[in-house]
Each structure stands twice: as structure tokens, then as C-alpha cells.
Specification:
By secondary structure, the chain is an alpha+beta fold. The protein contains 18 helices and nine strands.
């Protein structure tokens, strides 16, 4: 037996003995459970590296099969074929002619801004607590008196849930506080600076390369709250729940990491100040215009970038087209993104991306590509030892219903509710399937 096999068997034996010895002692049992979970994850990461799990859309499989058959079957005479549809840079889902609007002269911004009043919360000591910590910080600026646990009990009822979406955080603001929030795609540095200069912290989601709990350096989604900037130093000031208060992020690094999430951001504000915030957002005040702006930027970056940057540009284009209702165009953009992802060095692959962004599920489902929904969910769920990703289970259940697999759909729905009790999409599926929530 190889040495690795003896190590694994020995490790599992030790874990079983630990479990047996601590079965009747609550505090030790809890610590043993944590270590068991940690070692299980480490073993799976070692044996089945998640970055090696690559999703291949059926459209790409069909293209490979078609090309192979063509190569094997010579044609007696060439016949003209219609070229495959392509996505041209600059194309968007909107079919209406844009209306020219006057461009206002921007008010000069101060060269530096530093907002005071955010109560710092870190994310440590809890599982995946980035979202609750950052939302608590964003709310504290406006006098909200809760903390990260106050938020987490609502938006993250299952502690090991891999991620909380930005829309869930905005929903918390409007439902549980006297404040409101605006979420927009397609932001830029000037927009962020404008908001900060006028007294509005901004919550953003970025994709840095960080060391995970198993010691690997890899791409991961991360929230942070921006509270200032300094042009002389070329950096934003952030309240980073992972690192420290007043954590500096160079503009160039920030923009590169922000690209991972289609330049999305959220600003929290009191209801009476909505008109002021909308004016500060300018063209991005209209959500549709924001999606169109993001789609156009993605098209430019597809032509300008390569490697991981080009992957995110294609992915962002898909996300924007989903939000504009062009699901077929979005699916084609995601196909290109996943093709590029497979060609990246494994150390660069953002294999967690479906934890944070579910646009491909929308695109494939609403363009009738149900098997791709299932295959993508399979790839995402099987890549980790603890697949606490309720959205992937919900989308796989939806696709299984269409394909007639009601038993599988019910199982996935129950899993989604286990990992996120009260999750509305899963509750709707439970009602549809008659299994109860």
C-alpha cells in the first residue's frame, strides 16, 4: 500500500478514537466535531483537489463531437455553412436605441476622504462570517446598534453556509432596519469616490487571492467596507473584517479584485436621502442602465484582457445579460468563460465562483439547458467536503423537476432547507413538490 494510504487510514482511525472518547462530554464533543470536519476537508482537498473539477457545458461537448465527426467523414464537395453566432464587443441585450443625455460637468472631488463612525467587526471565531461582519459595519455608520451576530442570526442561520449573497444583505437592511440600500453593477472608482466624498460608506465584494482554512492560496470572494480614499497614495481605506480596521487597498489591486464581481457595490442610507444618493450615482441610478454599462465594460475587457482577467470579463458579460433578460446570450458568454477556466493553470482557477454568483444557473435554466444546470451544480457541490451551498441544490432541484426526477428534486430541496432554514426559493420548491418546509 502506498505511504499516503497508510497515512489516511491512520488519520481516520485516530479520528474515530477521538469521536468515541468524547461522545459523552459536550464541550469535547463539539471540539472533536470541529477537528473531524477540518480533517475531512483536508483529506478531500488532498485526494480530490477542488481546482481540478472543471465544468464543461454541453454546447462545448457537442461542438467537439461535431468537429470530430466532420474530420472522420470527408465531404465530396464543400457546402456553405452559416457561421456560428458570436458575441461582438459592445453588443448588449437592449434592442432600443440609446437616448442621448447631456453629460453633467463633474464636481471636483477632494484628494482624500476618511469617514468616521463605522464600528469595526472582524469575522474571526465564526464560520464564514464575512457577510454578517461587513453588513454590521455598514449599518453601524448610521447609528444601528446591533452586531455581527444580530445580522448573522437572520442572513446566516446555518453557520457553515458558504456565502451570503449581496441581495440577501440588502433585503436585511430594508426588512430589519429603518434604512434602505441600493445595489448596483458596473461601478467604477469615480463612483465610489463620489459616494465616499459625500458621506456614504460603500460595501463591495471582491475576489482576492487568499490563504484558505486548509492553507491553500486561491481565489475567494470577500466583502469589505470602504470608508475613504487617498489619491496621493493611490489607495482606498477599507474596514476589512479579515485583516484589520483602516486597511489600505491600492486602486489597481482593488479594481482587479473587484472585477471578479462585475464591479458590484451596495450603499446603505436613510430613506429621506434617497434622491441625493440617486443623484450621486448618476447614470447608475437606473438599474437597467447599470447592467448595460456593466455589459459594455465586460465587452471591452474581453478584447483587452487575457487569462484570468478575460475569464471574469466573459463571466461578467453573462451576468449582465442575465440581468437584462437575454438568457441565450448570457449562456453563450458563460460557455466562453468556462472554456477559458478549463485552460487556466489549476492554481488560478476560481473554482468557488458558484458559491457567490448564480448567473450561469439562470442562463442555462431559462435557455432550456437543464442538463447543464445539473452538471454545473454537480461540479460545484462535489468539489468540496462540506457542500453548504443552498443555491446550487435549489437550481439542481428545479432542473430535475423539468426532467421528471421528482425524487432527486425533493432530496435537493431538503438539503437546501437544511443548509439554509427558511430559504424562500427552497420553501417554494418544497410546496411545489408537496414535501413541506
Amino acid at each position: 500500500m502506498p505511504r499516503k494510504g497508510y497515512f489516511i487510514i491512520g488519520t481516520l482511525g485516530i479520528l474515530l478514537l477521538m469521536a468515541a472518547a468524547t461522545l459523552g462530554i459536550p464541550d469535547l464533543r463539539e471540539r472533536a466535531a470541529w477537528h473531524l470536519s477540518d480533517w475531512r476537508g483536508r483529506i478531500q482537498y488532498a485526494l480530490f483537489p477542488p481546482e481540478e473539477a472543471v465544468f464543461v457545458p454541453q454546447a462545448q461537448v457537442d461542438a467537439i463531437v461535431h468537429a470530430t465527426l466532420q474530420a472522420m467523414t470527408p465531404s465530396p464537395s464543400p457546402t456553405p455553412t452559416e457561421p456560428a453566432p458570436t458575441i461582438e464587443p459592445g453588443e448588449t441585450a437592449s434592442t432600443s436605441e440609446p437616448t442621448a443625455t447631456p453629460t453633467p460637468t463633474p464636481t471636483p472631488l477632494p484628494s482624500s476622504v476618511s469617514l468616521e463612525g463605522v464600528v469595526y467587526h472582524d469575522q474571526h471565531g465564526m464560520w464564514n462570517y464575512c457577510a454578517p461582519a461587513n453588513l454590521a459595519m455598514g449599518l453601524s455608520y448610521w447609528g444601528w446598534q446591533g452586531d455581527r451576530v444580530t445580522v448573522g442570526e437572520v442572513i446566516k442561520p446555518f453557520e457553515k453556509d458558504k456565502n451570503v449573497m449581496l441581495y440577501e444583505m440588502a433585503d436585511y437592511v430594508t426588512r430589519y432596519t429603518n434604512l434602505t440600500a441600493a445595489v448596483r453593477h458596473g461601478g467604477d472608482l469615480q463612483t465610489l469616490k463620489t459616494l465616499l466624498a459625500n458621506g456614504y460608506p460603500v460595501l463591495v465584494e471582491t475576489g482576492p487571492m487568499m490563504k484558505d482554512v486548509y492553507g491553500k492560496i486561491s481565489w475567494i470572494g470577500h466583502y469589505t467596507v470602504l470608508t475613504g480614499y487617498d489619491d496621493a497614495k493611490g489607495q482606498f481605506i477599507s474596514q476589512d473584517s479579515f485583516y484589520q480596521p483602516d486597511y489600505p487597498i491600492p486602486y489597481e489591486q482593488f479594481e482587479q479584485e473587484w472585477r471578479s464581481f462585475n464591479y458590484q457595490f451596495m450603499v446603505i442610507f436613510p430613506y429621506p436621502q434617497e434622491s441625493e444618493v440617486m443623484a450621486l450615482l448618476g447614470p447608475l441610478a437606473d438599474p437597467i442602465a447599470a447592467f448595460e454599462t456593466a455589459a459594455e465594460r465586460a465587452s471591452r475587457e474581453i478584447a483587452e484582457l487575457e487569462g484570468l482577467g478575460q475569464f471574469f470579463a466573459w463571466f461578467n458579460r453573462g451576468t449582465s445579460l442575465v440581468n437584462l433578460g437575454d438568457f441565450t446570450g448570457a449562456a453563450a458568454a458563460y460557455d466562453q468563460a468556462f472554456l477559458l477556466m478549463a485552460e487556466l493553470p489549476s492554481s488560478q482557477r476560481p473554482w468557488r465562483i458558484l458559491w457567490y454568483q448564480t448567473g450561469p444557473y439562470f442562463a442555462y435554466y431559462f435557455s432550456g439547458r437543464y442538463q447543464d444546470v445539473i452538471d454545473l451544480a454537480d461540479t460545484t457541490i462535489s468539489a468540496v467536503a462540506e457542500p453548504y451551498i443552498e443555491e446550487s441544490f435549489v437550481w439542481r432541484a428545479r432542473a430535475k423537476i423539468v426532467l421528471g426526477d421528482y425524487t432527486g428534486a425533493a432530496e435537493d430541496t431538503r438539503k437546501a432547507l437544511e443548509y439554509h432554514p427558511g430559504f424562500d426559493p427552497a420553501l417554494e420548491l418544497a410546496t411545489q413538490l408537496g414535501i413541506g418546509g
